[in-house]
User: What shape does this take?
Amino acid sequence: MVTNHNITLSYRELSDIEELSAEDKNLLKEAMAVAENAYAPYSGFRVGAALRLESGKTVKGVNVENAAFPSGICAERSTISASVSNYPDDKPSAIAIAAFNEEGLTDQPVTPCGNCRQVIAEEETRSNTRIKLILGGKKNIYVIESMSSLLPLQFSKKNLLTNLPSL
Ligand code: THU
Assistant: This one.
């Protein structure tokens, strides 16, 4: 039997940062500001991320590149690592991301790479919550209600548990 499935992705597109709520606007501004600290001598592409926690704290991170290229880390994963390391029980509720190239803030929002989608999705599972994505570009802003919608059919802990070989 063959069954066809369709998955749809819903996201909101805004044309101006002023259309965000005050707290989301502040989070995005924090992501833009911290991008200044990025260590990106190889790509020249500076990314900042700001993660809002339930307590009201904000954890920020940037991409940190390395001469051994694969050793570098994206802004999103450095932020999640900092958050889990310092506030393991404080649930994240939203992450804002902004990137700058040699011309400044990118025209279009940057969407997280596959590795970062996987890590943010597992953080949603670990914290039993949804993490809203606020992706800021010069021309528009995307708001996506949960990482799981950007990573359908994701590989997760469940796969490991159900695929364990029987001993
Ligand atoms: N990068 C991020 O930090 N986040 C993204 O969402 C996309 C890519 C970084 C990785 C690398 O340091 C540089 O941007 C160019 O890919």
